[in-house]
Specification:
Chain lengths: 291, 787
């Protein structure tokens, strides 16, 4: 849960990150939200190898390597949180807490005055927020009753038919399109894009405030061919707003902290981005920014 | 953008180290030697007039607004009648002390030690006050940092807002002099109470003569310099000479005269008592009529007016308040707290924003001087364009302006007894005190170290720093419930408040007796009518002295930790805490870690936020019980100055996990690094405090990452943050928008960052002028980053 979010929609927002996603994008900025359970992140660069975590861990998830450095076995961790309590340098962080709908609403209500002044509200992000269909439906309904504006950030991979009412009720939705070629999509995210594109097309029928987000990863999806195909898709579905999000490396450290082996990608340069923006604009697609 | 002229002008100011001038002290002292036996108010008036007749009248290259308190481009003066012993003790180290250095030459030192100090021995305010202070109060009050009112007996009071609207611009000092003469003529010599009034009116006439003479001498000097100047400068100097002939004797006729008149009035205040918080009040309100007329006539352009305002900003920044090394810790950065307020509502409640309001924001944004302390009043109906310009200035990262809730300020003053119209006409005093130009009040009378009360509560009255009894002798062994412990802490606070009140009453008496303020009494409405000096309760409104609490967040966090760990979870005992504090947490890592995880003020967590509210409410109620020598109740405040740093250095570890000697927290801000939820959470916590009862002001400092507001959308969000925060009822907010990286760089290469302004707490100053300790405290403040 993050208060004073300013890049996830209009105004000042509280962003609720709902854990769990079926995509495994290699460049993901929020890998801690792939699994729908709490997880411990371990930041090795902060660790001073004092060994306190070893002595308190009931699951034996910590040991030292030959150099005396702490090694954390994420797969053994049962997220009891004992190591967080004793770590003197805050090298560990628990990602994910269970909140009831009531608890979430209590948090949202706190910043309502700032939502009102700024035209902000709540953004459900992830992970993939639409995976938590019943929970999300309950929250959206209650936000509607209180006049809290709602938005979602979605990867598009969920049961859209079951979420129809939620999609229609949202004030705004961001959908990601990573790339148009399904084979490459499968290569980089683990899943083909057919259902995603189908869902976005269906959502466009019932919600007229949709922004398509494209992460820009150099040499992966910044080619003209990909963009031409995407423009065709957008025009077919009367989608006319796109936000381009150049790749950043913040997910890299997090993946390492989660015990994964991340790959490094790079960010396209300014001129490349401008070219893509021009391409979109010349096809009557507005390039928006929530920076 | 600065014009080239102002750019070079500013550079000269920045590159000059302040120097001590002995002129004022020497002339003032000589006059006093010649007036022995006369009434003190007359002696002080005559001494002021002598200063005006004799001090140097330097006009520096390219100056548009003229007048200086000493012969140097940046001068500091000594007022020995208040305190001189610190100067004698410290003057050899003025140039190499850690905070606020001054140059002082050999001749100056000789004059001071031979001609000035010997005369004042035994006569100064400091010596008189200390002689009257009882031993018990003195133990807490004198140079301890526990209950500190040294600014009220080592220096003059200051803390007034000159009344340009109804007095100076309306009557001129010539008119005021005439009025005093008429009042004097109407007095009878056979009525006892008229004897004092007679001396008062005579004194008013004398100080009017003084300031008028000073201005005429400047007019002559300008004319003299004009003879030798190149044609362009010659025209300027001739114009300056003409201006100085008219004002401040006569009311100003146009914008240029008005702004020079403001500086001469200010100059008189500084020469008369060299004090802090000589506020300029609602500058945009009293300057606008002249501006409007001149613009309409074509007598001045917007750019010329802006340049004059920038020149005034330099004048306000040039002079330095010469203070002891101890005081410099509290008021770091050569700061003189000349507050200037723009925006807000008019007396009838309608919006008051005008072109001058915008020009002031522009001048501060262009010239980036640490003075004036620019404050804005924001109300729900204020033009969105104005709020946007305010946000743009915030984004520059100079810490300016201080942003105030218009309505909260009025409420505070209505509660203090002002009429609704007067309360709507408020301005800021010093840093964040809601004030009005017809008020006489010690707006920063005493600093009370609340965290010390916490230390004494846990430690049975003992200080872990001095290892002696400093608080009330109590015992934690008698404590069985949280309520009992809280009350014990409150008892310790009440004890400190009592010392503060005692000290203030004695101090007020001494001021009334030996340091009347004839010049200041001209500037504040009521004195002329009553025939009574400001120090005797002459002002239209007399408000009680303000006692500032330091360490609200620290003590709220301490109580929350004790409540949770001792009385709810029962994991530790009060005795564990006492031992841990004595050991400065060494060997108590487990307790320290547990305290670290306890609720912290500034995260919108009611568990601890209600405790902070309770402490601040108690503090107010306890203070408000006492009345000052004019029968006005004492007032509470939570405004930091830079006082939270020295206040922390004199107390041991506290139960919130803070280590011995570490800084406390300013105002009602969260403690550095503990407000980890979001700026909105920190603001909501702070807004839970009942701001309206603390007439002495409340202060919140929020550090924002520049990323949050770098775009136009960001500016709108910042405006929304301000409006939302004020809708919650809070009084003041200040944003520091500087990345820690820049501050680290400034520490490494201070030369390259000489104009880097930062918010210390309630005011801005050059970062490189702060001590390393103060710099580190600034850097440590939480920087909010959103990913």
């Amino acid at each position: 849960m993050q208060r004073l979010s300013v890049n996830d929609g209009e105004g000042i927002r509280t962003t609720i990150f709902l854990k769990g996603c079926r995509l495994r994008c290699r460049w993901c900025a929020n890998p801690e939200s792939w699994r729908d359970v709490p997880q411990v992140m371990f930041f090795a660069h902060k660790c001073i190898s004092c060994g306190k975590c070893i002595t308190v861990c009931p699951s034996l998830a910590n040991n030292t390597d030959s150099a005396g450095r702490i090694f954390f076995h994420n797969e053994k961790c049962k997220t009891c949180g004992h190591c967080l309590q004793v770590c003197p340098v805050n090298a560990r962080q628990m990602m994910g807490t269970y909140f009831s709908a009531d608890e979430v609403m209590d948090q949202l209500k706190k910043d309502m005055i700032f939502f009102d002044e700024s035209g902000g509200g709540v953004t459900f992000s992830g992970g993939e927020p639409f995976l938590h269909t019943a929970y999300l439906r309950a929250l959206i309904k209650r936000c509607g009753q209180l006049g809290i504006s709602t938005a979602a950030e979605s990867c598009g991979y969920f049961d859209a038919e079951a979420c129809k009412d939620i999609i229609a009720a949202m004030d705004m939705i961001f959908f990601d399109i990573k790339m148009m070629n399904s084979i490459r999509h499968k290569k980089y995210t683990g899943i083909g894009n057919e259902e995603i594109l189908h869902n976005i097309a269906a959502a466009a029928q019932i919600n007229d405030n949709i922004v398509i987000r494209v992460p820009l990863i150099k040499n992966i999806n910044t080619d003209k061919q990909n963009f031409a195909a995407m423009i065709d898709f957008l025009r077919e579905n009367s989608l006319n707003k796109v936000e381009l999000l150049p790749y950043h490396i913040l997910g890299y450290e997090k993946m390492r902290a989660l015990g994964m082996s991340p790959e490094k990608y790079s960010t396209p340069v300014g001129a490349e981005i401008e070219e893509l923006e021009y391409l979109l604009k010349s096809n009557d697609i507005e390039v928006v920014s929530y920076k | 953008m600065l014009s080239r002229r102002m750019e070079s002008f500013k550079r000269k100011y920045i590159e000059t180290t302040p120097s001590i001038s002995s002129k004022r002290a020497e002339i003032f002292t000589r006059s006093h030697k010649n007036t022995e036996g006369e009434q003190l108010i007359l002696r002080r008036a005559k001494a002021f007039r002598a200063v005006c007749e004799e001090i140097d009248t330097p006009i520096f290259e390219d100056e548009l607004i003229i007048g200086s308190i000493g012969e140097f481009r940046r001068s500091g003066i000594i007022c020995p009648e208040y305190s001189w012993s610190w100067v004698e003790k410290e003057m050899d180290h003025f140039s190499d002390r850690p905070q606020d250095q001054y140059e002082i030459n050999h001749d100056t030192k000789t004059i001071l030690s031979e001609k000035v100090f010997p005369y004042w021995k035994g006569k100064s305010l400091e010596e008189t006050f200390l002689a009257r202070l009882d031993k018990k109060t003195a133990k807490l009050l004198v140079d301890t940092g526990i209950v500190d009112n040294d600014s009220k007996w080592r220096s003059a009071v200051g803390e007034i807002t000159a009344d340009y609207q109804d007095l100076i611009f309306k009557k001129g000092f010539g008119g005021l002099k005439k009025e005093a003469q008429q009042k004097l003529d109407a007095l009878s010599s056979v009525m006892a109470e008229d004897i004092n009034k007679k001396a008062f009116y005579q004194s008013e006439i004398i100080v009017c003569e003084g300031i008028i003479t000073l201005s005429r001498r400047y007019a002559q000097e300008a004319a003299r310099l004009a003879e030798k100047a190149d044609p362009a400068r010659q025209a300027e100097l001739m114009e300056i000479a003409a201006i100085c002939k008219n004002i401040p004797e006569m009311p100003p006729k146009n914008f240029k005269e008005a702004i020079q008149c403001v500086w001469f009035t200010q100059l008189g205040s500084i020469l008369s008592e060299n004090s802090l918080a000589l506020n300029l009040g609602r500058f945009d309100q009293y300057m606008y009529p002249y501006y409007k007329e001149d613009i309409a006539k074509g007598a001045i352009t917007r750019q010329e007016a802006l340049e004059r305002i920038e020149a005034l900003w330099i004048k306000l920044s040039e002079w330095v308040w010469a203070i002891s090394s101890n005081t410099a810790q509290f008021f770091a950065g050569y700061n003189s707290f000349q507050n200037l307020t723009v925006g807000g509502r008019k007396r009838d409640g309608s919006d008051a924003t005008n072109d001058i309001s915008y020009l002031c924001l522009e001048a501060t944004s262009n010239i980036k001087t640490h003075q004036p302390g620019l404050s804005v009043r924001i109300h729900p109906n204020c033009p969105p364009e104005f709020l946007r310009e305010v946000c743009k200035l915030v984004r520059l990262g100079t810490g300016f302006p201080a942003i105030h809730n218009d309505r909260a300020g009025s409420q505070m003053l209505v509660a203090a007894g002002l009429s609704p119209e007067d309360a709507r006409d408020w301005n800021n005093c010093g840093c964040v005190v809601p004030h009005f130009r017809k008020i006489g009040e010690w707006t920063s009378a005493v600093n009370i170290n609340l965290a010390a009360a916490m230390e004494y509560a846990v430690n049975d009255g003992y200080s872990n720093m001095t290892h002696s009894i400093m608080g009330m002798k109590t015992s934690i062994n008698d404590i069985n419930t949280y309520e009992e412990f809280k009350n014990l802490f409150f008892k310790q606070i009440a004890n400190l408040i009592k010392a503060a009140v005692t000290g203030s009453l004695i101090c007020q008496e001494v001021h009334r007796e030996i340091v009347p303020r004839p010049y200041m009494s001209l500037l504040v409405d009521g004195c002329m009518e009553k025939g009574r000096d400001l120090s005797q309760g002459g002002a239209k409104y007399c408000l009680g002295p303000v006692l500032t609490g330091i360490g609200l967040a620290d003590t709220a966090n301490s109580l929350a930790a004790i409540k949770q760990l001792v009385f709810e979870k029962k994991l530790f005992t009060l005795q564990d805490f006492a031992e841990a504090l004595r050991a400065d947490w060494q060997g108590f890592e487990k307790l320290h870690a547990a305290v670290f995880s306890a609720p912290k003020y500034g995260n919108d967590d009611n568990y601890v936020d209600t405790i902070a509210t309770e402490i601040s409410d108690f503090y107010h109620t306890e203070i408000h019980k006492y009345k000052d020598i004019f029968d006005a109740p004492f007032n509470s405040a939570f405004m930091g100055i830079s006082n939270y740093i020295p206040a922390g250095s004199v107390i041991g570890a506290t139960p919130d996990g803070r280590k011995a000697g570490a800084p406390l927290t300013e105002g009602v801000s969260p403690h550095a690094g503990t407000d980890i939820t979001s700026p909105t959470a920190a603001m909501r916590s702070a807004a839970k405090i009942n701001h309206d009862i603390h007439q002495g002001g409340t202060l919140v400092n929020v550090k924002l990452s520049p990323d949050l507001i770098k775009t136009d959308r960001g500016l709108n969000n910042l405006a929304a943050l301000i409006k939302g925060y004020f809708a919650l009822g809070a009084f003041h907010i200040q944003f520091n928008v500087i990345s820690p990286d820049i501050l680290y760089k400034a520490q490494e290469n201070p030369k390259d960052y000489r104009d880097l302004l930062v918010r210390v707490a309630g005011y801005s100053t050059q970062f490189v002028n702060l001590s390393r300790k103060a710099q580190n405290a600034i850097i440590e403040r939480t920087t909010y980053e959103t990913m």
